[in-house]
């Protein structure tokens, strides 16, 4: 079913069940956010994507990433109330991630250059904003190698039972989605160190470049039913071989 509503006065249409942030972005309306990734379920963790939603007599300030659109609502992305609440949330994020460029930039765009909150940064993830994108992504990929521990100010991202998890395949997807890039990964030509473990790489049989970790290869082959030699060659060498084959067919 299609629903129709307005965002900052613009008439928009969306499918029932869509999230407001996705619909706004599709229509070129920029709502800032740190914890949103289209591939994983939104949870409204960073609370930067606040908007004002008016429905009949009711007005609410809500996170747009996990708000399901409704017919007839009036959405405003830049009211005084939205700016006030967003600025407060950015102050909190600054206390968690004082050295993160992405947080500082977003905060500064909202007029926030300092925080009144006690420092909340923690080792070994000093710029972690607790958005849980790493945990959600790892879970979505079927690994379940990360978790949250503690509550309130003591909440942290960590490893189950506080020790390196056998489930971690060293794919580094957690780092690729992390908005503040605070997860430590060290790659050498043959190994990747991440979350307290070292993972050997499969090396491309043509050029010798790292293709994927062995553990990730085994997981992907068994999950997707791929041929055993699927990851023996890197993408670049596969493409180069394919274009050579194409050229020989054309000529
Ligand atoms: S590197 Fe480990 S923790 Fe990170 S997403 Fe991959 S499996 Fe999960
Ligand atoms: S480590 Fe990165 S992705 Fe994970 S919760 Fe912290 S900021 Fe978010």
Core attributes:
251 residues; alpha+beta; Ubiquitin-like (UB roll); 2 domains; five-stranded mixed beta sheet; four-stranded antiparallel beta sheet; 7 helices; 29% helix; 20% strand; globular; binds iron/sulfur cluster
Describe the structure.
By secondary structure, the chain is of the alpha+beta class. It folds into two domains: 128 residues, Ubiquitin-like (UB roll), CATH 3.10.20.740; 115 residues, no CATH class. It contains seven helices and eleven strands. The chain has a five-stranded mixed beta sheet with strand order 2-1-5-3-4, with helices on one face. A four-stranded antiparallel beta sheet has the order 8-9-10-11. Helix 2 runs antiparallel to helix 3. The mean pLDDT is 95. The site of one iron/sulfur cluster has 14 residues, from helix 4 and helix 5.
How is this structure best summarized?
The protein is of the alpha+beta class and 251 residues long. The chain has helices spanning 20-26, 80-96, 101-109, 133-140, 173-177, 214-224, 235-250; strands at 2-7, 10-15, 50-55, 58-63, 74-76, 147-149, 156-158, 185-187, 191-194, 197-203, 210-213. β6 (147-149) and β7 (156-158) form a beta hairpin.
Low-confidence stretches: none
Strand order of the largest sheet: 2-1-5-3-4
Number of domain modules: 2
- CATH architectural category of the largest domain: Roll
Oligomer: single chain
Order of helices and strands: EEHEEEHHHEEHEEEEHH
Structural class: alpha+beta
Mean pLDDT score, rounded?
95
| Counted beta strands | 11
CATH topology of the largest domain: Ubiquitin-like (UB roll)
Summed up, the helix count is 7
CATH top level class name of the largest domain: Alpha Beta
Percentage of residues in strands: 15-25%
Which ions and ligands are bound to the chains?
A: iron/sulfur cluster
Global geometry: globular
How would a textbook summarize the main sheet? 5 strands, mixed
Task: Evaluate the radius of gyration.
Answer: 22 Å
Our measurement of the CA-to-CA distance between the termini, rounded to an integer number of angstroms, reads 52 Å
Provide the helix percentage.
Answer: 25-40%
């Amino acid at each position: 079913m299609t629903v129709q509503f307005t965002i900052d006065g613009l008439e928009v249409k969306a499918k029932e069940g869509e999230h407001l942030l996705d619909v706004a972005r599709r229509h070129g309306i920029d709502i800032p956010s740190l914890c949103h990734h289209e591939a994983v379920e939104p949870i409204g963790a960073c609370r930067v994507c606040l908007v004002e939603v008016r429905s009949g007599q009711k007005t609410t300030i809500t996170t747009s990433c996990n708000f399901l659109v409704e017919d007839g609502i009036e959405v405003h992305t830049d009211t005084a109330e939205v700016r006030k609440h967003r600025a407060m949330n950015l102050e909190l994020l600054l206390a968690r991630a004082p050295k993160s460029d992405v947080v500082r930039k977003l905060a500064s765009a909202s007029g926030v250059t300092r925080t009144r909150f006690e420092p909340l940064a923690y080792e070994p993830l000093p710029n972690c904003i607790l958005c849980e994108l790493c945990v959600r992504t790892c879970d979505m990929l079927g690994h379940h190698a990360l978790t949250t521990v503690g509550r309130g100010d003591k909440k942290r991202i960590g490893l189950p039972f506080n020790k390196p998890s056998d489930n971690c395949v060293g794919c580094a997807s957690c780092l690729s989605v992390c908005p503040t890039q605070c997860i430590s990964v060290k790659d050498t030509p043959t190994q990747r160190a991440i979350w307290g473990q070292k993972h050997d790489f499969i090396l491309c049989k043509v050029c010798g470049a790292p293709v994927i970790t062995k553990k990730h290869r085994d997981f992907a082959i068994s999950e997707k039913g791929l041929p055993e030699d699927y990851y023996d060659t890197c993408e670049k060498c596969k493409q180069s071989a394919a274009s050579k084959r194409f050229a020989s067919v054309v000529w």
